[in-house]
Amino acid sequence: MQTLQAVIMGAVQGLTEFLPVSSSGHIVLSSAFYKMFTGAEIVVTNEEIFFDILIHLSTLFAVIIYFLGDIKNILSNFYTAAKEKNYKSDNFLFVIYILVATFVTALFGLVTKEAAHNLTENPFVVSIFIIMTGCVLLISEKIKKDEIKKDENKKIDIKTALVVGLFQGFAVMPGLSRSGMTISSAMFMGLKRFDAAKFSFILSIPIILLASFVYPILTFDLKDVSNFNFLALISGMVTSFITGYLCIKYFMNFLKNNNLRCFAYYCFIMGAISATFFYITGV
Predict the structure, then answer these.
(1) 149: three-class secondary structure by DSSP
(2) Contact predicate 222/216, CB 8 Å
(3) How many CA atoms lie within 13 Å of 79's alpha carbon, on the beta-carbon side?
């Protein structure tokens, strides 16, 4: 992997991981475009799989840093509730709901792992999935707008955790945005947009950690790591962390007064352009 390619993909990951436009889809498309213009073969190497894991960990670190205060409070309150055997408290149940959603996602991901991996070499289908992400975003906004009885104090419950976990599982497919699926599904279940985004970002922590340690073990021989371009890998990680942190910061502020429609329109445009391009070129 070249350093320029790593920096580009790191920036793409950081900018799109938390926006509801599919970071995995953009990684596939940006990699395919880069390889086409540099004359490289469009195949996914073990180094690129390893790099994808590293930049996901970088953006995960950005989430932890940004929500560090919230995470400390969540864990502290969970410990206190467990110690007092107050198993019905919101503080205790919030962590349980995170674990439930993660479990559902992990099960779905294991079943669809091979199909998702095969899609990384099919940018046309990934483009179609990005368009589908846009559709989900628009539907979630329409449902939110059309709600007659709207509970502004709606909280996470077991049903919401199961639904959000399932939708997060769908996002194992490149092009289906993890944040888009989780935020939209949480909105389907009645959560406010800002609360849905916060739950989505905190929910990303266990699933990214799980995928980062389990996926490489199931996918490739770690002995290959010694032959990787570590300058490129580190450059991409740093870029991913910086862009990811800034993206979270501004996206959370954006959601206080805005909706997701602009991201849906972006998905339609980006998906249509890339699908047309890869269809014409036969890639």
Answers:
(1) coil
(2) yes
(3) 6
pTM, to two decimals: 0.85
Within 10 angstroms of residue 78's Cβ, the number of other Cβ atoms is: 18
C-alpha distances (whole Å) from 261 to each of 19, 68, 85, 132 are 12, 29, 43, 13
Give exposure, 241-268, as e/b (b: 16+ Cβ within 10 Å).
bebbbebbeebbebbeeebbeebbebbb
Domain residue spans of the chain: 3-281
Alpha-carbon gap, residue 5 to 12, rounded angstroms: 11
pLDDT, one tens digit per residue, over 107-155 is 988 888 778 777 777 889 999 999 999 999 999 888 766 554 455 567 8
- Indicate whether 274 pLDDT > 50: yes
| Span 66-93, average pLDDT | 90
CA dihedral 172, 251, 191, 58 (to 10 degrees): 40
**Contact status, residue 197 vs residue 19, Cβ threshold 8 Å:** no
225, burial (CB in 10 Å: exposed 0-12, middle 13-18, buried 19+): middle
- Kindly report, residue by residue over 206-221, the tens digit of the pLDDT: 988 887 776 655 555 6
